[in-house]
Write a structure and sequence with these properties.
With 240 residues, the chain is α/β, with parallel strands linked by helices. The chain is 48% helix and 27% strand.
């Protein structure tokens, strides 16, 4: 029963742990002794590290063959994410075997660098209109850069474009306060101007002064656009 019901809370999740013994104290609290087969755990971790290295090598080979800029970016994004999984595995390995060495193959290190260059090679044009254009342009640019791609200004060569149109409604009085509602319509298009992402975000600001309500609404809208745009771009990069 103890083996079935015990709940484990640890800083690390390690496979291969077994409950070797249990003891109930006079107060009714149950203590469980967990035992880890160190050699088996080390073997599992080394196998997982090798799997990551193999996946990186496979993605690197596909990246070398891909010619379309955004296609390269998608493979590069997956390669960077896959290689990042190696770090915690090596950290776990060193907990069990402090003297363990698990350097990444030279090809894997080169593949990661090539992937980062491929991501940065994708230019994303950012175009914004509306009263809060500067704030929204900053938000959209940060969302693009967070993916590893490169944001470019209007008129520059690009592989994707992000258009953000902002509309602000006139302040409305509500229970003695002024409320301003703003809307952003966002469209991401490929080089053929075909939409790949489209969404709408809204926000509101409340204050005793119209200018302050507008400022608060603009800040809230920019934060939502940045978060949503980053999520949508990331999902697009992660799609297979």
């Amino acid at each position: 029963a103890v083996q079935q019901e015990v709940t484990s809370v640890t800083a690390k999740l390690l496979e291969g742990v077994e409950i070797a013994d249990a003891w109930t104290d006079p107060a009714g609290r149950i203590f469980a002794l967990a035992v880890l087969d160190r050699a088996r755990a080390v073997e599992v971790l080394r196998r997982r590290i090798a799997d990551v290295d193999g996946e990186v090598a496979s993605l690197a080979a596909r990246l070398a063959e891909e010619r379309a800029p955004f296609g390269r970016a998608r493979l590069a994004y997956r390669l960077v994410g896959t290689s990042a999984r190696r770090v915690p595995l090596v950290e776990d390995l060193r907990i069990l075997e402090p003297a363990a060495e698990a350097p990444a193959p030279a090809a894997a290190r080169e593949a990661r660098a090539a992937a980062e260059r491929a991501l940065a090679a994708v230019g994303v044009e950012v175009r914004v209109s509306g009263e809060a254009a500067d704030r929204l342009r900053t938000a959209a640019t940060r969302a693009v850069v967070a993916t590893g791609m490169r944001a470019v200004g209007p008129g520059n060569a690009h592989d994707l474009s992000v258009d953000v149109e902002e509309d602000a409604a006139a302040p409305v009085k509500a229970e003695g306060w002024l409320v301003v509602r703003v809307t952003a319509r966002v469209r991401v298009a490929d080089a053929r101007n075909e939409a790949v992402v489209a969404f709408v975000e809204t926000a509101k600001g409340t204050s005793g002064r119209g200018d302050e309500a507008t400022r608060r609404a603009g800040e809230a809208l920019a934060a939502r656009v940045e978060e949503r745009l980053h999520e949508e771009l990331r999902a697009r990069l992660e799609s297979r």
